[in-house]
Specification:
The structure is a homodimer of 500-residue chains. Chain A folds into 4 domains: 7-91, Barwin-like endoglucanases, CATH 2.40.40.20; 94-159 and 248-272, Transferase, Pyrimidine Nucleoside Phosphorylase, Chain A, domain 3 (Up-down Bundle), CATH 1.20.970.50; 171-247 and 282-408, Pyrimidine Nucleoside Phosphorylase, Chain A, domain 2; 419-499, Aldehyde Oxidoreductase, domain 3, CATH 3.90.1170.30. Chain A has 18 helices and 19 strands. The first copy, chain A, has helices spanning 30-35, 73-79, 98-105, 112-123, 129-138, 146-158, 185-194, 213-218, 227-237, 251-263, 268-281, 302-318, 340-351, 359-375, 384-393, 396-408, 436-445, 480-492, and strands spanning 7-12, 15-16, 22-26, 42-47, 50-59, 68-71, 86-91, 171-175, 199-203, 239-243, 286-293, 322-329, 337-338, 419-424, 429-434, 455-458, 465-466, 471-477, 497-499. The longest helix of chain A is centred in the middle third of the chain and has 17 residues, at 302-318. The N and C termini of chain A lie far apart (75 Å). Chains A and B meet through strand 2, helix 1, strand 5, helix 3 and helix 5 of A and strand 2, helix 1, strand 5, helix 3 and helix 5 of B. Chains A, B: Keywords: Glycosyltransferase, Transferase. Chains A, B: It catalyses: thymidine + phosphate = 2-deoxy-alpha-D-ribose 1-phosphate + thymine. Chains A, B: It holds the Pfam family PYNP_C.
Chain lengths: 500, 500
């Protein structure tokens, strides 16, 4: 091959296409002309010993020179080219897992090797979004059996880092299908660590919600720790709550979730593989699963819950993982705040035994912490929930939480915005239901999670009696513009609360 | 809502993302900030009464102003904004067909209404690539039954234009899974029109192959006719061969094919709906299907062929369509040329009864034209193939072809490139197989279909005896650079011909 017709200089496009690597090349560049590339061609870009497969977008005006290939952010960071680096660009060979993907689409059972090939190509970004969507669709519902679920879990664990800890019991927890404001994690970590358990917790940031656990935690302490820093915190305090993004555990999971989310697919096998691969990679030995069940939760009925529990147990057992599942109420939000700072305030009120602390968040956290203590009982713990309540009420959990925050880089008291607007009830009655999806939207319009102090503070819960003029919820914002924007939305949607 | 925080000025990005509408907005633009948009958000763009759903790519450097939204080519043409137009940009509501898509993914049978909603959202570009991929995956193999196939066909027909013709019999033909060089269409049209049948044929351009029928035809006559011009040609000559792209027939099909192709999925139901929806929309009453069967063809065995034939018959019957299926040899290329001008030369040689005309292309065309004449016999036609041969041998088909070309805008004799390189056999033996995929790649590297005269001219066929030094094939190119590039590829892949 001639090198001159297949090489271009690499530049940064400055375009964020999320986890999709995209390369921009001019229609008249020598590579497009000689290789016959057109828009959406899958191309292999090789530079300085690294190779990446990207989707081509063709530039047809003179924004781009004909001798360069411009890389999207994901592609730029993956290849990390030096100044002026050139790349050889060719047609991408079909990924090695193509035949496995076709087999699954046509309903065949995948071997462990086939599953490994698919996961490796996923992590190496060799599968296009179309191929990833076909994969998750082919696994939807119950189209993965228990053996395939175990193979998928193992392949996902093996495709990333794995953390090893000293000590016999490493505990972890996961909530399936988060409810708005459901910030039990910092509380469970604080109680479990105060009880002497080792609980190295990684959490996610918000993607479509007004706050992820990592966003809420970040209001109180740094969360962007690398693996070594995380290990230091856990060695010192027995627990942590850090962002999982900088610790590369089960990286295939993040990629599959990106494709699953817009499809809103409930795939039992992928859900279980997703949750357990992260826990196993994080070195957990004892895992508690919080399974909220409710008509608008991820798990909609007890029948669904039973099937998922069986799948969790079979997979956990294959990895020698101790597992407990707690079915919880998934019908309405937990706590009063929605948005990072407001949720953080709820958490601290519970830890401090404040009289105004939200009772439902406290009860849920004690239930989960109690179940975790029963699963991996520390010395002298006869009843998990009794032990958990004692640690919370004595202030031991609060002191442990502050110590963890200090170890992560320093505790900060959350600030509450001064820009508050109260939304009032227009007629008397009983709150029959809350549209959680729209309420989350209001919090996002007000600026959450980017604006840490923005969000919604609920004054009422389902079942409460209200009188016209009562405050339903407070809007919090950091800027007048965002406050107005959220208020306009609330005015246009008076049905967020169903009052009869 | 405030208009200032949700409106941006529309500009053209000059980026071709094929049929995917993409909008580029700056990370710090007021809409991204207030709506909480991130990369890959699905956004609704409304301007001057038109609305489009696009995928967001976020620009993070200063290439783009914060007060504009830049549209990819597809989005720009769909909205066709006037100079300085502004657009209101919001979160896209989930498409109406979301629940139908989920139902199909979970293996349920779709009603006619559900199928219609999915096809309408496909045509309106309301489904993302991920959703389209899930749809085609959920229909893969035999997961659409006959009733669903009929509903899909009807929805696809109704979603586009439909042509009405005068006359009782409107004939058409389609080859499933084109073989390289398989240019029977211009020959079948010429013979059928010469026999007095009405055959308004629309064809496609190459997408991944070195030439589509429309590309080959364009070497000899204009093919980019709108519906009215096409109707004038057919009224005058009884037939045409035009590009289907400017006649909006079954537009959902083009979108689904774009997603199916990279997955290489054989979906019986979608194949049948794809072919027949185009024919029904084109007003056909009698349709001949050419079904090449061979290990590397789209239909690999007679068992597959039988299942597809049943599906074709059931669907055609639901629409009152007269259908005939001809199983043909799908084991090797048809004709000698691969590339627009070289294929056009093959076609003209057959029409002119040239002594060097490729016999296989002549035989295949007579077989298909004969079957079509048997399906819709013109007056005085007792045997289709006898009648077809008489029309070809008498020169009537040739005169009709030239007349059609003249009616389409003027006949042009194809030019053959002067830049030719002969590739020779390295050892004696028998040609056992030809790697059609690689041979097509060689033709594309040489410049086809963009360079009309570029391509491959085969000197040998499977089964031929060869002696070292014989010419296997000629490379044709329009530029020295492309010739060198194709030659390098041939040198690197001596196994394109299997000679033993």
């Amino acid at each position: 091959m001639q090198s001159d017709s297949s090489t271009l200089r690499l530049v940064r496009a400055g375009i964020d296409t999320y986890q999709q690597p995209v390369v921009y090349m001019h229609r008249d560049c020598p590579v497009c002309r000689s290789e016959g590339f057109t828009a959406l061609s899958r191309v292999a870009i090789r530079s300085a010993g690294k190779e990446l497969v990207a989707t081509l977008n063709v530039v047809i005006d003179d924004h781009l020179d004909v001798d360069v290939a411009a890389l999207s952010e994901m592609a730029w960071h993956a290849l990390a080219p030096s100044e002026g680096a050139v790349a050889e660009i060719r047609h991408a060979e079909p990924p090695a897992s193509t035949s496995a993907l076709r087999a699954k689409v046509f309903g065949q059972r995948l071997s462990a090797d086939a599953m490994r090939a698919l996961v490796q190509d996923t992590v190496d970004a060799r599968l296009s979004d179309i191929e990833l969507a076909a994969f998750v669709t082919a696994c939807a519902g119950d189209r993965l059996d228990h053996v395939e679920t175990i193979a998928l879990t193992r392949a996902m664990v093996d495709a990333g880092q794995r953390i090893a800890w000293f000590g016999e019991a490493i505990v972890d927890k996961h909530s399936v299908g988060g409810l708005p404001g459901n910030r039990t994690t910092p509380l469970v970590v604080a109680i479990a660590a105060a009880a002497g358990l080792c609980i190295p917790k990684t959490s996610s940031r918000a993607i479509t919600s007004p706050a992820g656990t990592a966003d809420t935690m970040e209001v109180m302490a740094p969360v962007d720790l690398d693996l070594r820093a995380m290990q230091r915190v856990v060695d010192r305090e027995g627990g942590c709550v850090v962002w999982g993004g900088s610790v590369r555990l089960s990286p295939a999971d993040d990629i599959l979730i990106r494709v699953e989310r817009p499809l809103d697919l409930d795939s039992e096998g992928q859900l279980v593989a997703s949750v357990l691969s992260k826990k196993i990679a994080a070195g957990a030995t004892h895992v508690l699963i919080d399974l909220p069940v409710g008509p608008t939760a991820k798990v909609r009925s007890n029948t669904n819950a039973y099937a998922i529990e069986q799948r969790f147990r079979a997979t956990a057992s294959a990895f020698g993982l101790h597992l407990r599942i707690a079915r919880t109420d998934g019908t309405q939000p937990v706590g009063r705040g929605i948005g990072p700072s407001l949720e953080a305030r709820d958490v601290l009120q519970v830890l401090r035994g404040d009289a105004v602390a939200p009772g439902d968040l406290r009860d849920r956290s004690l239930l989960l912490a109690g179940a975790l203590l029963d699963l991996a009982p520390p010395p002298g713990c006869a009843s998990g929930i009794v032990h958990a309540r004692a640690l919370l009420d004595s202030g031991a959990a609060y002191r442990k939480f502050v110590a963890i925050c200090e170890a992560q880089g320093g505790f900060t008291e959350p600030c509450i915005s001064q820009l508050v607007h109260s939304v009032r009830v227009q007629r008397s009655g009983i709150v029959r239901a809350i549209d959680n999806r729209r309420l989350a939207r209001v919090a996002k319009l007000a600026g959450a999670p980017r604006a840490r102090r923005a969000g919604v503070f609920l004054r009422l819960r389902v079942g409460d009696h209200v009188t016209a003029g009562d405050v339903l919820f407070d809007l919090h914002a950091e800027s007048r513009g965002e406050m107005d924007y959220a208020r306009s939305f609330v005015d246009a949607h008076p049905d967020i609360f169903d009052i009869a």
